[in-house]
Amino acid sequence: LAIVGQVQATAQRRNLDDRAALHELVRSFLLEYETSATRHVALLHDGQVLATSGPPGRSESVHLWDVKTGAEMSAFPTGIDVTDFAFSPDGHLLAAAYASGVVLLWNVQGGGPAASTPLRFNNPASAVAFSPEGHVLAAAHDVTIVFANLDSGDVIGISNAGCGVQDFAFTPTGQQLVVGCEDGSIRLCGASSERCGDEHVLR
User: Fold this and answer.
1) What's the rounded Cα separation, in Å, for the pair 127 and 159?
2) What is the pLDDT of residue 2?
3) Residue 30, Cα to own-chain centre: how many angstroms?
4) DSSP label at residue 141
5) Which of 9, 132, 162, 174 is most buried per CB count within 10 Å?
6) How far is CA 30 from CA 4, 70, 96, 145, in A?
7) pTM of this structure
8) Could you say which DSSP state residue 80 is in?
9) Which tens digits make up the pLDDT trace of 74-128?
10) Please, which residues have CB within 8 angstroms of residue 197's CB and are 6 or more apart in sequence?
11) Residue 202: strand pairing partners
12) Which residues of the chain fall short of a pLDDT of 50?
């Protein structure tokens, strides 16, 4: 459902002619992994590439699929469970977070690791996202969200979300994050704030 919903939203936004191809790819993928959940999915902004990973124990790689042909383009194996991933806005990079706490950048077209220095936590990273302009990468572990400048490789901010972070997304301006928490709350956090404000909590 998550894949189909994202497919439909992207198709409607871009008026894609290959919606049937994408739905067929999703169908064949689900048939191949019929008894296993697809843990994470992401669709490239142009609708041409689908990224997937499996459930714990079968998620040591991110797989990229050509939407039109249904063929697997490449895979990024590490031997460590993938916990989240995201495409960069320009579609050149894929950031993947792992259960080891490392966050790696992969080249979408070349299939190899990017030269940028990865982020690393002492425990599993739970979420990762690019800012809208693509120059900042945010990654989370537990209550901590770290912001790194991809041009310099430097950490430029650390924020306490005040909750266990499950997932997050930048707002269109890139100035805030919408954070989904383990306790079921949703918090709006300033991207440069040291702590999310309790006044922005939804339950």
Assistant:
1) 14
2) 43
3) 20
4) E
5) 162
6) 11, 12, 22, 33
7) 0.76
8) S
9) 888 878 888 899 999 999 999 999 888 889 999 998 878 887 666 888 888 999 9
10) 187, 188, 189, 190
11) 186
12) 1-16, 34-36
Question: How far is residue 29's CA from residue 24's CA, in Å, rounded to a whole number?
Answer: 8
Residue with tokens 């994050």: 177
Sign of the torsion formed by the C-alpha atoms of 40, 44, 47 and 50:
negative
For the chain, strand residue ranges (E) read: 40-43, 49-53, 61-66, 72-77, 82-87, 93-98, 102-107, 119-120, 127-130, 136-141, 144-149, 155-160, 165-170, 176-181, 186-190, 201-202
Q: Which of 168, 159, 165, 64 is nearest to 124 (CA)?
A: 165
Residues in the chain: 203
Write out the two tokens for 2: 């998550």
User: Contact at 8 Å (CB) between 70 and 84?
Assistant: no
